Automatic annotation (TrEMBL):
Family in the record: Belongs to the UDPGP type 1 family.
SUPFAM superfamilies: Nucleotide-diphospho-sugar transferases
Name by which UniProt lists this protein: UDP-N-acetylglucosamine pyrophosphorylase 1, like 1
GO biological process: UDP-N-acetylglucosamine biosynthetic process
A GO MF term: UDP-N-acetylglucosamine diphosphorylase activity
InterPro entries on file: Nucleotide-diphossugar_trans, UDP-sugar_pyrophosphorylase, UDPGP_fam
Keyword Acyltransferase attributed: no
CDD domains named in the record: UDPGlcNAc_PPase (cd04193)
Keyword Zinc-finger among record annotations: no
Length: 505
């Protein structure tokens, strides 16, 4: 740990001497705690960080420079659940299962965020959207890993493992660890669940000064999901992957309730194409939808934010009437381990810094705590997808939004991406699976419910039907269980109910 004099000198050099303005008022324990925190900062980079934050906040981020040299992803580098033929999809799925069965595939969860916008202080993965089973996002995802291992083993006679790497932050690491321990890792081997922490960086005022959230504590924030690449090095995660023989990573965000863990079709598509980097995308719902677009700029793959596209560009359509720039980014990616290693070792320092203007509580010059009513601070973030530019072979894979993308971002009352819409999306999907398997439904009074196979993701299905991931990963194997069955809503198909249905046959 650095001495007080060394830290004081470094802060003065960085133009941040105000950080110690309340030093004389701190207790001995508080001084020691503050010294530890300050020692963990990269004080050599602090001046550059603060200056870059202030300059970035003043810049015009609505510029259309990217728009001027944009082109869509070439068709030969795109696969699609909707457009690719059955033979190709089956071949990719078989390749994916083969890689999974050989212990070459892992999943990596980006889980550094709290559920603040949901009105809770705990990690978003611990949130229960109100399913009949009361399962949290973490449990749903853990059970999907259990099931994909089981499917790969059955297909290849193997005993495989899909390791689960979970990137947390200072805010989410301890509660996430405790939650997994209390729930016995949801049936997974604890040694195959590897949690690690991303870096925290100081929040900065508009004039480039570090914000104090208390007299002896700097206001810190995670460095965005693009902080993954630094965290992989800091925590020796890449070495762990190599020791396990992992070659392919499926990386995703915690808030998507429909995410297909280690999706064998996506993995197999990327491996078959020889890709080092890939992105799942969904077709944009409409030209001005506020979602980033996967495309090429100056011949380099990247995600262009919707605010950087002119309306006339966003509205372009091809001869078939489809949007030219339709590949909506859903933060669902494929990387090879060698690519991640190269990015972490060579390129992570080159990643673009994105500005987020936030309301950051602070202590004023008199030491009083102030909770601002409008943005007063800058949090700098890196995005996980900003590494596309370093790929030697990039591919995109289009999936159906109603089957694979329903994020949880806002509290109920907001128009989109709420606990209600997430729950509706999952239950609508499971209702479609049950109908496809040949089931029919009765209401609670025993009255027949007319089938409605075209239920969309943002409406309640006619019947409530939840299917455990431990029973079916993505709708497979349900004909034997539900075919010609008459089910009463609400219907919960868990492992015990599945056994009962099989024994009754």
């Amino acid at each position: 740990m650095l001495s007080f004099e060394e830290i004081k000198s470094s802060l003065e050099h960085a133009g941040q001497s105000h950080v110690l303005q309340f030093w004389s008022e701190l207790s001995g324990d508080d001084k020691n705690t503050f010294l530890v925190e300050l020692s963990q900062l990269d004080l050599n980079e602090l001046r550059e960080h603060c200056e870059r934050a202030a300059e970035s906040a003043k810049a015009d981020h609505s510029a259309t420079a990217a728009d001027q040299q944009i082109e869509p992803v070439s068709s030969e580098f795109i696969g699609s659940i909707r457009k690719s033929d059955h033979t190709a999809l089956t071949g990719w799925e078989n390749e994916g299962f083969l890689q999974i069965s050989q212990n070459r595939v892992a999943v990596l969860l980006l889980a550094g965020g709290q559920g603040t916008r949901l009105g809770v202080s705990y990690p978003k993965g611990m949130y229960n959207v109100g399913l009949p089973s009361s399962k949290t996002l973490y449990q749903i995802q853990a059970e999907r890993i259990c099931k994909i291992q089981e499917l790969a083993n059955a297909k290849h006679g193997s005993k495989c493992t899909v390791p689960w790497y979970i990137m947390t932050s200072e805010f989410t690491l301890d509660p996430t660890k405790k939650f997994f321990q209390e729930n016995k890792y949801f049936g997974l081997d604890p040694s195959d669940v590897v949690m690690f922490e991303q870096r925290m960086i100081p929040a900065v005022t508009f004039d480039g000064k570090v914000i104090l959230q208390d007299k002896g504590k700097i206001a810190m924030a995670p460095d965005g999901n693009g902080g993954l690449y630094r965290a992989l090095v800091d925590n020796k995660v890449l070495e762990n992957m190599e020791e396990r023989g992992v070659e392919y990573l499926h990386v995703y965000c915690v808030d998507n309730i429909l995410v297909k863990m280690a999706d064998p079709i996506f993995i197999g598509f990327c491996v078959s194409k020889g890709a080092d980097c890939g992105a799942k995308v969904v077709e944009k719902a409409y030209p001005a939808e506020p979602v980033g677009v996967v495309c090429k700029v100056k011949g380099v793959y990247q995600v262009v934010e919707y605010s950087e596209l002119r309306p006339e560009t966003a509205e372009q359509r091809d001869p078939g009437g489809e949007l030219v720039y339709s590949a909506g980014n859903i933060c669902n990616h494929f990387f090879t381990r060698p690519f991640l290693n190269e990015v972490a070792q060579k390129f992570q320092g080159q990643l673009k810094q994105h500005v987020a203007l936030k309301k950051v509580p602070f202590v004023d010059r008199e030491g009083n705590l102030v909770k601002p009513t409008k943005p007063n601070g800058i949090k700098m973030e890196k995005f996980v997808f900003d590494v596309f530019q370093f790929s030697r072979k990039f591919v995109a894979f289009e999936v159906l939004r109603e089957e694979e993308f329903s994020p949880l971002k806002n509290a109920d009352g907001a128009p989109l991406d709420t606990p209600t819409t997430a729950r509706q999306s999952l239950l609508a999907q499971h209702y479609r699976w049950a109908m496809a398997a040949g089931a029919s439904f009765l209401d609670a009074q025993g009255k027949s419910l007319p089938p409605r196979p075209r239920v969309t993701r943002d409406e309640d299905p006619p019947a409530v039907c939840e299917i455990s991931p431990l029973v079916s990963f993505f709708g497979e194997g349900l004909e034997q269980l539900l075919g010609q069955k008459v089910l009463t809503t609400p219907f919960l198909l868990d492992e015990n109910r599945a056994k009962e249905l099989l024994q009754a046959q």
